[in-house]
Each structure stands twice: as C-alpha cells, then as structure tokens.
Amino acid sequence: MDLSMWQRFTERARAAVYFAQEEAVRRGISYVGPECLLLGLTQDADAVAVAVLRAAGVDTDQLRSRLETLLSEGVADEVSQASLTPSAKRVVELAYTEARARGCDYIGTEHLLLGIALEGGDVSGLLAELGGTADSLRAAISRLPSDEMKGDPVG
Q1: Which residue in 24, 53, 51, 18 sits closest to 36, CA to CA?
Q2: Which pairs from 54-59 meet CB under 8 Å and 24+ separation?
Q3: 30 three-class SS
Q4: Which residue, among 45, 48, 38, 51, has the nearest Cα to 128 in the 3D structure?
Q5: What are residue 16's phi and psi, to 5 degrees?
Q6: CA-CA distance, 58 to 50, in Å (whole number)?
Q7: Smallest Cα–Cα separation from 13: which of 32, 40, 53?
Q8: How many whole angstroms separate alpha carbon 121 and alpha carbon 5?
Q9: pLDDT tens digits, residue range 97-120?
Q10: Do 133 and 117 meet the contact criterion of CB atoms below 8 Å apart?
C-alpha cells in the first residue's frame, strides 16, 4: 500500500491494520490476509466497523471465534513483520472505492469492513454466513446515527 493511501486511513483504521499485523506476528504468520484484517477490525469495540457489524446482526464474539480457528497457530518468534497479501491489498482497494462512492475523502473501519465483504474470498463468505453481506453492511451503515459514524477520527 502506498503512502498516499495510508494517509487516507482514519486513526482507528490504521490501528486495525496494526492489530492485524500484531495478530499475524503473534501467531508466527508472515502475512496479513483478510482474516487478520477482520480480526484487527474487531479489536476496538468503539470502531465504526464494530457498530456496523452489530447493526447488521453479526455476533462479533462468534465472528472472532471463527476467525481464530481459520488462523492456524504458527511458531512464535519466527516472524518479526507481516506484510499484506494480494487479497488484503484488494480489500484496501475496495475500501477506497467504497469510501469514494460514499463521498468520503478518508478510509474508515467501515470501509475496510465493506472491502472485506466485497473481496469474495473465504473470509467474505464467513462474514456473509454470519449476516455480514456487503448489502446488509451498507444498510447498517445507513441506519447508524451520525454520532456513531464520527467514531473514527481521521489520522
């Protein structure tokens, strides 16, 4: 991801990526895929993405549990840094497209969540299975009060 894209991320969206990288490294995984990104998004209970998931009827505890089983435990301390997979980079591109379509000049946690839902891989399938389709997430975003949408300050 280039610097100009990273600068568009809100503080919470950046934190979610950091959480995702920490999860990968902790598990001994050298990559950050959509599953790590989604796990990172659920780390901050005050993030807009978590409010969107709840508004869409997704059980975030069940989601976290299912994601953790997707991620096989690696050997700790073998990895010092994890980079984004092509599918995770696609999630970021889709998040940017969603942000622009919504008239936003930033990428928030809700946009990353939509990017994951739209990516089309196993994680978007899991999210859809739990009620988090792109359509249900967009509808949930539209229903959220504006004060909840301000939960991700631009970094």
Answers
A1: 24
A2: 55/140, 55/141, 55/143, 55/144, 56/131, 56/132, 56/136, 56/137, 56/139, 56/140, 57/131, 57/136, 58/127, 58/130, 58/131, 58/132, 59/130
A3: coil
A4: 38
A5: -60, -40
A6: 9
A7: 40
A8: 23
A9: 999 998 998 999 999 999 999 999
A10: yes
Q: Are 85 and 108 within 8 A, CB to CB?
A: no
Residue type for position 17: V
3 state SS of 83: strand
Query: Which tokens hold the place of 128?
Result: 């859809």
Residues 37, 70: Cα–Cα separation, whole Å: 13
Residue type, 110: E
Please give the helix or strand (H or E) that residue 81 lies within, else none: none
Here the tokens at position 62 are 């069940």
Assigned token pair, 91: 């999630």
Give the CA radius of gyration of the chain.
Answer: 14
Cβ-contact 117, 134 below 8 angstroms: yes
Say what angle helices 48-55 and 134-143 make with each other, to 10 degrees. 110
pLDDT in tens, 25-54: 888 888 899 999 999 999 999 999 999 999
